[in-house]
Design brief:
46% of the residues lie in helices and 15% in strands. Helix 2 crosses helix 4. The protein has a five-stranded parallel sheet with strand order 2-3-1-4-7, with helices on both faces. A two-stranded antiparallel sheet has the order 5-6. It is an alpha/beta fold. The chain contains nine helices and seven strands; from the N terminus they run E-H-E-H-H-H-E-H-E-H-E-E-H-H-E-H.
Length: 211
């Protein structure tokens, strides 16, 4: 089973990707991790990637897909793989198609913009450990303080409402067109209500994949 997870930033894709990987024994492929791994290796592809990364320019879609094709040939992908964070836009989706990468199921985690802003702007983090809290859904024992150390929690710059709005603008412009692209293809496209509690969303995903 080869899957793609789509959804707004903050819809819960990362959390669900880890659960799917554990429950269904598929490889969870992050393009960022893949790029770092390739750039540290040797060979023609690694040299291409290193050239773009060192110059600070974006790695072209064709090279990302070339890396992906190489990655999914590895043994941990024998039972399938999950793509979270790729494709990000229509061009990448078409490049994936052109490379002959077969996708069986696209899961779209659907949620409103208002809920995303509420979720993400409510996050608080302990900078040293990375422990994460939420002022509504998972508050610390003492307001504004880490449960373990008692040190002050911070709101990351990425979680400020004005930054979230900018990230959502990018999503609407670049990623949302992928929804119709995959809806109109000969594959299974399932929309999951991601505004529900985590365990309910997880169960819906489990049933969708199992069926």
């Amino acid at each position: 089973m080869n899957l793609i997870l789509l959804g707004m930033p903050g819809a819960g894709k990362g959390t669900q990707a880890e659960i799917i990987q554990r429950d269904f024994d598929v490889a969870n492929i992050s393009t960022g991790a893949m790029m770092r791994e390739v750039s540290r290796s040797e060979g023609e592809l690694a040299e291409k990637v290193q050239t773009f990364l060192s110059s600070g320019t974006l790695v072209p879609n064709e090279i990302i897909v070339e890396m992906l094709v190489q990655r999914i040939s590895e043994s941990d992908c024998d039972k399938g793989f999950l793509l979270d964070g790729f494709p990000r836009n229509l061009d990448q989706g078409k490049a994936l198609d052109a490379a002959g990468v077969a996708i069986d199921l696209v899961l779209f985690l659907s949620i409103s913009e208002e809920e995303i802003v509420k979720r993400m702007s409510g996050r608080r983090v302990h900078p040293e450990s990375g422990r994460s809290y939420h002022i509504i859904y998972n508050p610390p024992e003492k307001e504004g303080l880490d449960d373990v150390t008692g040190e002050a929690l911070i709101q990351r710059e990425d979680d400020a409402p004005e930054v979230i709005k900018k990230r959502l603008d990018v999503y609407y412009r670049e990623t949302e067109p992928l929804l119709d692209f995959y809806r109109n293809k000969n594959l299974k496209f399932i929309e999951i209500d991601a505004s529900r509690p985590l365990d309910e969303v997880t169960e819906s995903i489990r049933q969708s994949i199992s069926n």
